[in-house]
Design goal:
This protein has 64 residues and is mainly alpha-helical. The protein has two helices and two strands. The chain has one domain (2-59).
């Protein structure tokens, strides 16, 4: 449910029309926002590689 409500919010839908209380909406949307942050963190982690010896991070280049 958090994903669907979050997507509706992003599209500008008035979520109060969905019939949930403000408290319920806040909880669902908090879950949606947390899921987005987690996905962004995972995507960022996939774009770099860390050298095990020196700890330097290098960007991952995709094949042409």
């Amino acid at each position: 449910m958090p994903i669907e409500l979050g997507e509706l919010r992003e599209e500008g839908f008035d979520l109060k029309l969905a019939g949930f209380s403000d408290r319920e909406l806040a909880e669902y949307l908090r879950e949606f926002d947390t899921d987005l942050e987690d996905a962004d963190t995972e995507a960022d982690a996939a774009e770099t590689v860390r050298c095990l010896k020196c700890g330097h991070e290098f960007p991952v280049e995709s094949d042409p």
